[in-house]
Design a protein that fits this description.
Length: about 500
């Protein structure tokens, strides 16, 4: 049984407990509950029928004046006709490219975002953070023996190292493959069954669940094996661990992501095989003995200096009070990090650009943050919480977009149920672009989870997650996956909500 005590403490922030095992999040787990769910902590007195009617027709008391609501409509419309987020994302992904934490591209991206924000007239601070510096190496595998093998042949297996993985010796290892579908099957094996072998967890991503719009839940069901597989494998005596890719794409494209080791447990090399190769290995290993030659040569270099980029669009009345609008700037290295999470960064940059375009300065400061190293441990976000302990009370709200750039249907909010009631006028502004839902959720974004925990109201766009995990963390996370209209809908949510929070009385 895996417990939280087995996860290295510095990485704990990225691991959440599901079904008794620790899970690498990679993206936030949002267990959504409708703001109408009776199980929520209810307000003292239920709203009267009249109150509810008022809310439905947009009447009743609004926290925002008619003029402020008109400003939100102008920001929404401007966002929808803008090229800014789309062209900035094109540059970030096509020109700068993948942005693994500690890499030259990550540093280039930091400097570029800072420059772009300075051009708008924002006050820019680079906030230093130490980040992991893991580099991918050779990653190859082939079957050297299997039932029915033609003499003298090998069979290629497509895989990619998991982030943070240690390597095999440079010449690789050759070992028998043992396949299990889940933890329970691993526990049911006789003692020593995995010793000296390569252990594969063939747990499929639940495509049907994702197809119904629950992509994050489908991811959560798979990613536990990526996060905790190497620890379980090492405990069982395996020499390496393979996991089935934790995504829905089945074009034989492997899906990377962070894994973890535990103090006192041997670190063994870990990789994700494609869904197709996982099926193949499962079939063959149940027919008879399968042997694989596996070579993984990633390296973990000393931690590197990097930065969160902070750009303040200064408020007029309360500049010390801030509303955070954010995404994470680092990405995995197989693709170019367009949906994860270049899109989140550029829709956040757009919030400031659109306010500049329309000459809008809200009462409070709108703070764009491009977070560093979310994928490898959220070190940037942790540094922010350390550096801002004394001004946390000045955080009026925090928004993060980190679930792609597909059509958003509204806003997730973490906070009291009354917050949902209060936001109805904002939701009504967003109805025109099909984004008028308000859904209460315990978590909104990995990088803003520290702020959420400290009681800062936090928010995220409710993005369509049906297709996100087909590309996320794969070589296919590239700019062409971005639909400009849908990206702009996300920019509209970020901008309208940031303005609403920053300008409310
Ligand atoms: Zn992400």
């Amino acid at each position: 049984m895996l417990t939280s005590g087995m996860i290295s403490p510095q990485k704990c922030c990225r691991f959440i407990a599901i079904a008794g095992v620790m899970v690498s999040a990679g993206t936030p787990m949002i267990r959504a509950q409708s703001d109408k769910t009776p199980g929520q902590a209810a307000p003292a007195a239920p709203p009267s029928i009249l109150d509810r009617l008022h809310a439905m027709i947009g009447g009743g008391k609004s926290a925002w004046s008619d003029e402020q609501l008109r400003t939100m409509e102008r920001l929404r419309d401007k966002a929808m006709e803008s090229d800014y987020a789309y062209e900035e994302l094109r540059h970030l992904t096509d020109n700068i490219g993948p942005r693994l934490s500690g890499s030259p591209q990550a540093q280039k991206a930091v400097d570029w975002v800072a420059d772009e924000m300075r051009k708008l007239g924002a006050e820019v601070t680079l906030e230093k953070a130490k980040v992991p510096h893991w580099v991918r190496g050779v990653e190859t595998a082939e079957l050297t023996a299997w039932p029915g093998q033609a003499e003298g042949t090998k069979q290629k297996i497509v895989l990619t190292a998991l982030g943070g993985s240690v390597g095999t010796p440079a010449e690789g290892i050759t070992a028998e493959v043992v396949t299990v579908d889940n933890w329970k099957e691993l526990r049911s094996l006789p003692a020593g069954a995995v010793k000296g072998k390569i252990l594969l967890f063939n747990h499929p991503f639940d495509k049907e669940l994702a197809a119904t719009g629950h992509g994050l839940d489908a991811y959560g069901g798979s990613v536990v094996y990526r996060g905790a597989g190497p620890i379980a494998g090492a405990n069982a005596g395996a020499v390496a661990v393979l996991v089935r890719s934790a995504g829905g794409g089945d074009y034989r494209s492997p899906h990377t992501g962070a894994t973890a080791y535990a103090p006192g447990v041997t670190k063994i090399a870990a990789a994700a095989v494609t869904a197709e190769d996982a099926e193949l290995l499962s079939t063959l290993s149940h027919e008879g003995k399968v042997t694989m030659h596996l070579t993984l040569t990633p390296q973990t270099l000393p931690d590197a200096d990097s930065y969160n980029v902070i750009a303040d669009w200064k408020g007029t009345a309360h500049p010390e009070q801030v509303v955070v609008v954010s995404g994470h700037l680092d990405s995995w290295d197989l693709g170019t990090g367009a949906i994860d999470d270049g899109a989140g960064v550029t829709v956040s940059m757009a919030a400031l650009e659109l306010m500049k375009e329309l000459g809008i300065r809200p009462k409070r400061t709108v703070r764009m943050i491009a977070w560093m190293s979310e994928e490898e441990g959220s070190e940037g976000a942790a540094q922010y919480m350390k550096d801002h302990t004394t001004d946390l009370a000045n955080h009026a709200g925090a928004i993060e977009s980190d679930l792609g750039a597909d059509h958003p249907t509204g806003i997730y909010y973490a906070g009291k149920p009354e917050l949902g009631q209060k936001l109805r006028p904002v939701a009504q502004v967003l109805e025109k672009i099909g984004a008028g839902s308000l859904v209460n959720a315990p978590e909104t974004g990995e990088d803003i989870s520290g702020l959420t925990d400290k009681g800062v109201p936090s928010f995220a766009p409710i993005q369509d997650s049906r297709f996100y995990f087909n590309y996320h963390h794969t070589a296919a996370d590239t700019f062409d996956k971005i639909d400009k209209k849908q990206l702009n809908e996300n920019a509209a949510i970020m901008t309208v909500l940031a303005y609403a929070l920053a300008d409310e009385p």
